[in-house]
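Posting for a labmate who doesn't have an account.
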Amino acid sequence: MAKKVEHFSTYSIGSEENNEFPFSKIVADHLNTRHQEFILSNNDIMRGIIEAIFYNEIFDGLSAEIQSGLFNLYRLDAGKSSAMVTGYGADLIFGGVLDHTCSAERVNQLLWEQIYRTRWTGEFSNFGALHYGIKIKHPFWNLKLISYCLNLDPSLKLARGEVKVFVRDHLHSQQLLPDAITWRKKIGIHEGSSKNKIFAQLIGVDTANYEAKSLFSYELYKRFLTGSPIPESLMTSDFRQLVA
């Protein structure tokens, strides 16, 4: 796509704790895009979480945490771009979310369960992007592609200790990306920027406590349903009280 679209821009976000800038730069240089890197403050990350809950009606902690990055990009790019394209959803259909210990018999069932979950998580809602005047596209989230991938042999998704196997093999055989990127260990977008750790710190829980993160999201969601408060009024709040 970058080779066919004029003035194609790419973005990478990080936090004051962590980022994946060296790897994103390798990709940007390879594709010759106009690349920008943004460091998000803890307040930026929490604002993104709050806006995800408000605009996309998300009440799931993991989804709000992941969406925080997108909402910050919407805000940073508002008025500069009219459209954005993401790779969101690719991990669900190609197996990027799988654990290496998953049995072959469970691969497609587990992926279907994760895909089905998106029916209520609000992850693919476009209200937040539209609020910032951006048309958001997730090309991988296509019903025909989802159906096709769910029926692929599990060994194409998990094998040799690798996830997204047939995607990596294709990238390597066609030299579409440098091998340093193609064979890099898969980590979540919320992990590479430490949004998962920062969200937990701000509400006073352990990083892996997604029950508490979802409780926070749900309590905030319920407040929004009553019409108060709006996101901007929350930035000085004591977030810990919502999971007490």
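Reply:
Got it, the structure tokens are right above this. The chain has one domain: 9-224.
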